[in-house]
Amino acid sequence: MSASSPPDESPPDYLEHRQRLRERFLKGGPEALADYEMLEMLLFSAVPRRDMKPLAKKLMHTFGTYADVLTAPIERLREVDGVGDAVIATLKTVEAAAQRLAQAQVLDKDVISSWDALLDYCTAAMARNPIEQFRVLFLNRKNALIKDEVLQEGTVDHTPVYPREIVKRALELDASSLILVHNHPSGDPTPSRGDIAMTREIVQAATALKIQVHDHLVIGRGKHASFKTLGLL
Questions:
Q1: How far apart are CA 189 and CA 44, in angstroms?
Q2: Are residues 133 and 219 in the same domain?
Q3: Residue 157 binned pLDDT confidence (cut-offs 50, 70, 90)
Q4: How many domains are there within the chain?
Q5: What is the C-alpha to C-alpha distance for residues 135 and 128, in angstroms, rounded to an integer?
Q6: Same domain, 74 and 37
Q7: What predicted TM-score, i.e. pTM, was given to this entire model?
Q8: End-to-end CA distance of the chain
Q9: Which stretches of the chain are assigned E, i.e. beta strand?
Q10: Residues 6 or more apart from 206 whose CB is under 8 A from it?
Q11: Do 93 and 173 reside in the same domain of the chain?
Q12: Which residue has the higher pLDDT, 2 or 37?
């Protein structure tokens, strides 16, 4: 008695769905896909043998927007059922790539003349950070970026900043000028009294050593505040 032939097996539905999404993306670009579908495309590589639509929608529901998913803290991502190391690594790789692309627009350029690109970079790097972070952009005599360093991190609404450490680092890098940047996790970039007092201390310390402070930017969600524009510098 001959062995029966195995029944024909159709490919899983999610494989056809993945192919359709890819074709729509390649034909129409990112505008052809909803945010959850863009997220789904990312997850294909993280989990190759599973329907990713439910997880993509769950992540969007949990965090709110495509950008918020990418920038969510790792600890929060782990709380979502179905999210493991592969998914987290994929999301964080894309977040890091976006930041590096934005940074590339200001490296080795006169950042004063590339102000919009600088704001885009600072927004990509800091706007959705859940804790307050203080960074300094160190510039050379041509206002090109020498170094971008996070010098302090704090709580959800406070970061300890030490003017002497900032000036010391500027001297180590032979920087001629600085741009100060910090974020407000609340999303409102309005400078606080503490922000203003701290900035004055830094300017005083820097000026004594002939180091110019061009501006202090406060990054919120979708908006920013410039001390120079506000007449605070």
A1: 37
A2: yes
A3: low
A4: 2
A5: 15
A6: yes
A7: 0.74
A8: 92
A9: 133-139, 145-153, 177-183, 212-219, 224-226
A10: 163, 166, 167, 170, 178, 212, 213
A11: no
A12: 37
